[in-house]
Amino acid sequence: MILSDLDASLDLGRRLAAVVRPGDVIALSGQLGAGKTSIARGLLSELGLQEEAPSPSFAIVQPYDPPEVLLPVLHVDLYRIEDPSEAEELGLDDARADSLLIVEWPERLADHWWRDALWLTVDVTEDGARRLTARVPTAWGSRWPLT
Predict the structure, then answer these.
(1) What is the span of the domain harbouring residue 56?
(2) Three-class SS state of 21
(3) Domain assignment of residue 136, yes or no
């Protein structure tokens, strides 16, 4: 899938919001500036967030709860995680029981964390567009591709 501009990335996030549910994990991978946070912002906006979602780069985990959004969401940015053991302190396993996890830089942790995640990789093309590829687990099979 090609995301030609910022609006296309935001729109992808909005379309994801229509099919997510608590317990889902969306892993967003790609270089700095590829548009991971834009996809997350579109999703959060469609779930009801009124203001623009900040990048959680410094906070690492940015929680959103009803009534601010339709369902509990943790927007996670693992860019600053240097050792996988640091992730244990974030409580991501516990949060998965009742929250949607949107995780940027998931490659900072071992693959076992993301077995059932919808893994979206965003690559910047030579013309500045974004090429999106998806690794779709069985749990997402009936919900992907988005229509």
Answers:
(1) 2-125
(2) coil
(3) no
With 0.85 as the threshold, say if the pTM is over it.
yes
Query: Order of strands, edge to edge, in the sheet holding 2-3?
Result: 2-3, 130-135, 118-124, 25-30, 100-104, 73-77, 61-64
> Binning pLDDT at 50, 70 and 90, where does residue 147 land?
low
Residue 146 lies in a domain: no
- Between strands 2-3 and 130-135, the pairing is antiparallel
Distance CA 84, CA 138 (A): 26
| CA dihedral (101, 139, 120, 147) positive or negative | negative
Q: How far apart are CA 120 and CA 107, in angstroms?
A: 11
Q: Would residue 130 count as lying in a domain?
A: no
Q: How many domains does the chain have?
A: 1
| Distance between CA atoms of residues 35 and 96, nearest Å | 24
Q: Is residue 41 part of a domain?
A: yes
Cα gap 146→18, rounded to integer Å: 9
**What average pLDDT score do residues 81-105 get?**
86
Tell me the pLDDT tens digit for each residue of 96-132. 889 999 999 999 988 878 889 999 999 999 888 899 9
CA 62 to chain centre: 12
